[in-house]
Design brief:
Blueprint (H helix, E strand, L loop, with lengths): L5 E2 L9 E5 L11 E7 L2 E8 L7 H5 L4 H9 L8 H14 L5 H29 L3 H22 L8 E2 L2 E2 L8 H23 L2 H7 L7 H6 L4 H6 L6 H4 L26 H24 L12 H9 L3 E9 L2 E9 L8 E5 L1 H5 L3 H5 L7 H7 L4 H4 L16 H16 L1
Antiparallel strand pairs: 1-4, 2-3, 3-4, 5-6, 7-8, 8-9
Helix pairs in contact: 2-3, 4-5, 4-11, 4-15, 5-6, 6-11
Length: 418
């Protein structure tokens, strides 16, 4: 955003004073800076200043071969460490015309939905912490461990699972490990009612979240919000529903909104809790379907790495991969040129980039004490989405041409990498 705050008129006047929050603040798990204009305790203006965690991953990825870049894509976000490689592999497969066996598609779906379960439960714990309810934080993170343990059993890692490969997956789910998944899903089924009751029927949580950080249906559509943020506002938008892929094409996936619990959506923090908890239940059903209907056959269409590298080097074209990550839609765009090991172009759009502007109407009109939980309500990930923001010492912003940005990015990367 520019340096001019978006303001809410209150009694014919604007803010009395400005309070900066961040880029380092106990309520912020990653660096971002806010300037809040306040009239007493009420927020009447907000300016969002990202740009503190730019890492140059796209630059580095275009200077490695595609298999090396695949593992780099996993490290865009530790929480979404299946979401980015899923979108990336789909983009490359679309560009190179590489098919994915049905069994591999189902395995990708299972790991993706396990990630959604642990991510939503993690978010619930963070939300409880921002409300000062640390007992609930520890409960939810203890509950989350079951999912992390299962991911480790199935992939070998608690994060950065290294499951997708172009044309399939690197690891199968053998029959002897399926009972572990069934047991974990039963564990979450047994706890789901407790989590719903604790988060949605606790008077303190309800008072701190109802009507706080509201986002209307029209605002969500106008600002192109994605994921639970837009669904909490009543917009039934979900890539798994709208453009089915992987195993989702074999299921009747419906976007979850607060109406599924009989609540008229307002897009507030309470509605965000509803959507994420209901999506945990939905993910359990999806994984059960995949385990029960897991197709037989190969897990990759090109099992040998040299053959895969040759196929990728001989490919030419553009591809887009989309995945409904826990935070919302992830998009990867790639362009391949025949005879080159590296991509000619790679562009990543993370859900936080889409949801950033929804913070403005969410903050306006609320109070200082609500800043932490409203900030957490979109489940932000700065390292996923950060872009460049340039200003001189007076605070005046400037525009840079594409060539200048490329030059500055390369100079910074060389400094960082030595």
């Amino acid at each position: 955003m520019n340096n001019q705050s978006i303001k809410l008129e209150v009694g014919g006047s604007t803010a009395c004073y400005t309070v900066p929050v961040g880029p380092v603040h106990p309520a912020l798990k990653e660096p971002i800076r806010f300037h809040f204009d306040l009239d007493g305790e009420q927020i009447v203006g907000v300016d969002i200043k990202p740009g503190f965690a730019h890492r140059g991953i796209e630059y580095m990825g275009m200077r490695r071969n595609l298999i090396q870049t695949l593992y780099l894509s996993e490290r865009i976000c530790g929480i979404c460490s299946i979401s980015h490689p899923l979108a990336f592999t789909q983009a490359v497969e679309n560009a190179a015309g590489i098919a994915v066996p049905p069994r591999a598609q189902y395995i990708r779906t299972i790991i993706g939905e396990l990630e959604r379960i642990h991510s939503h439960i993690l978010w619930a714990g963070v939300g409880a912490h921002e409300l000062g309810f640390d007992t609930l934080l520890h409960l939810t993170w203890n509950v989350r461990e079951k999912c992390m343990d299962l991911l480790e059993e199935l992939t070998g890692n608690r994060v950065d699972y290294a499951i997708p490969i172009f044309g399939g997956v690197r690891r199968d789910i053998p029959a002897e490990k399926a009972p572990l998944a069934v047991e974990a899903l039963g564990y979450y089924k047994g706890l789901l009612d407790q989590l719903v009751d604790t988060f949605l029927h606790d008077k303190s949580i309800e008072m701190r979240t109802r009507g706080i950080g509201a986002l209307t249906y029209d605002q969500a559509v106008e600002l192109c919000a994605v994921g639970p943020v837009t669904r909490a506002a009543g917009v039934p938008k979900d890539v798994r529903q709208d453009m089915p892929y992987l195993a989702y094409a074999d299921m009747d996936i419906k976007a979850i909104t607060p109406r599924d619990l009989g609540v008229e959506p307002t897009g507030d923090v309470y509605d965000n809790i509803i959507v994420r908890l209901l999506e945990v239940a939905q993910s359990i059903e999806i994984i059960e379907f995949c385990l029960e209907n897991l197709p037989e056959g190969e897990i990759t269409s090109i099992p040998k790495v040299p053959a895969l590298l040759a196929a990728l080097k001989n490919a030419e074209g553009e591809g887009i991969g989309r995945h409904e990550a826990p935070r919302g839609e992830v998009i990867h765009y790639v362009r391949l040129v025949e005879g080159q090991d590296e991509m000619a172009a790679w562009k990543v759009k993370a859900p936080t980039y889409s949801n950033l502007m929804s913070w403005v109407p969410k903050f306006l009109g609320d109070e200082v004490a609500d800043i932490p939980i409203i900030a957490a309500s979109i489940d932000p990930c700065m390292c996923c989405m950060d872009r460049v923001h340039i200003a001189d010492e007076t605070g005046t912003t400037s525009e840079k041409t594409k060539a200048e940005l490329v030059r500055l990015s390369r100079e910074k990367t060389r400094r960082i990498c030595g």
